[in-house]
Amino acid sequence: MTKLSRRLSALPSYPMGEIPSIKRRLVQQGVDVIDVGAGDADFPPPEAAIDALARAAADPAMSRYPFQLGLPAFREAAAAYMQRRFGVACDPFAELHPLLGSKEGIAHLAMAVLDRGDVAIVPDPGYPVYHGGTVLAQGEPHLYPITPRSDFLVELDAVPADVLKRTRLVYLNYPNNPTAAIAPRDYLERTVAFCRRHDIVIAYDNPYCEITFDGYVAPSIFEIPGARDVAVEFHSLSKSFCMTGWRLGWAVGRSELVTALSRVKSYVDTGAFLAVQAAGAAVLHDAAAHLAPYVAQFKERRDAMLPALRAQGFEPETPRATMYIWVPLPEGLPSAAFQRRALEEAGVVVMPGSGFGAGGEGFFRVALTVATPRLVEGAARLGKVLAAV
Ligand SMILES: Cc1ncc(COP(=O)(O)O)c(C=O)c1O
Q: 287-303 pLDDT, tens per residue?
């Protein structure tokens, strides 16, 4: 048998891994599957993106290697968006870097920052790439349980001193996947101050900053004084503009950190398709106008799904951001078992809390990714599963 690397065997299994093939089998058997698993909404991308992509794809210059520079117009559009939306000024060439979706940037940053044995603080539950990226970089993940009791916040002063001494990186993600939690400004202020004191890099993962409701406006970490010294922020076109498959995002931060990330990437990829970057630039120029209808529809879905779930005996909190509802399960009911029964007996794909780490046990996640009537039907089917367990 081929000997594979130790870091490969240290990787937890990826939670979305088996779902597409199980779903395919059920669909082939004629099951009417309602998929509220992945954070991948059914809305079409903005027409401006499609038009710009079509135009750019016809230009032979766009078929050349992007390299790490990418399309200058994309860098400029992303920097202009940072300024307009958050009041954050950044140099589009020194302090901002295009990504093939934010996922790879998040994973690759660990390789730029961690040496073997350095610790990264990983929220548990959390987006699996924080854990996996740390392991692939031969760092040591320190899983920090985020719980409703502490509003799902990572409190760094609760990390044991011997772990803290070796900590080089912390992943923070607010608005949060999977819990939909948001971070108050005073929390961000004390966390930035702590990381400056302890020389810890913050990977601030911010793909849901535009999907917010009820008057809440999510900040950039760079609105917090001092954050520039320690943070790299990740943005994505995937969630805000319903462009998950286009694979486009960016990292922004102090030039030294962004350049370090770029150096890793220069050995791994050669940049996102320039025509996709042209489409990204077109969308970012007019971001607010494209976002408004998506956010309104996510809100409508949220406001229909919450009462539908509650009518079935579930007790979710009302999320003020993201496309997710984080739903507690009755005591003692394992989330993986509930997910399996939901899929096999009710044809509903949900994400088990345990798929985001052991700290997610006791919950499942619903994504508002299908039309309202399908969500409501999904809630009714989930209610039957709950009643049967
Ligand atoms: C918290 C979080 N960060 C990053 C990503 C990655 O998004 P993308 O690589 O599509 O930009 C996701 C996608 O699910 C996510 O939930």
A: 999 999 999 999 999 99
